[in-house]
Amino acid sequence: MIHSMDDRRAVSVTITGRVQGVWYRGWTVEQARARQLDGWVRNRADGSVEALFAGHGPDVDAMLDACWQGPPKAIVINVKVAEATDPGLTGFEQRPSL
Predict the structure, then answer these.
(1) Would you state the torsion angle of the CA atoms of residues 31, 37, 42, 48, taken in this order, to the nearest 10 degrees?
(2) Per-residue pLDDT tens digits for 8-67
(3) Per-residue pLDDT tens for 61-87?
(4) Chain CA centroid to CA 85, Å
(5) Whole domain around residue 54: which residue ranges?
(6) pLDDT at 6
(7) Which residues are part of the catalytic machinery?
(8) How far apart are the first and last CA of the chain?
(9) Residue 65: which CATH number?
């Protein structure tokens, strides 16, 4: 389904808990691409995972819900969400750790 740019939403997300070393980033790339989202994901030095999701509003919301679950070995404590600037049609990638 093709959506207009008007119904897009972009959010910056920080996921905390046991989210590094449990394939969280790879899982996030798969999940975001399956939802045709744009953005990126990376590990942070403080042990959290940071991501930017942009796309059709309901698809972004579904991704945020999925982030609370994560891959099987993850233990998610919190998903902090802030509205963000839409990066445009970039695809979704895993970025180097910060």
Answers:
(1) -70
(2) 999 999 999 999 999 999 999 999 999 999 999 999 999 999 999 999 999 999 999 999
(3) 999 999 999 999 999 999 999 999 999
(4) 14
(5) 7-85
(6) 75
(7) 25, 43
(8) 35
(9) 3.30.70.100
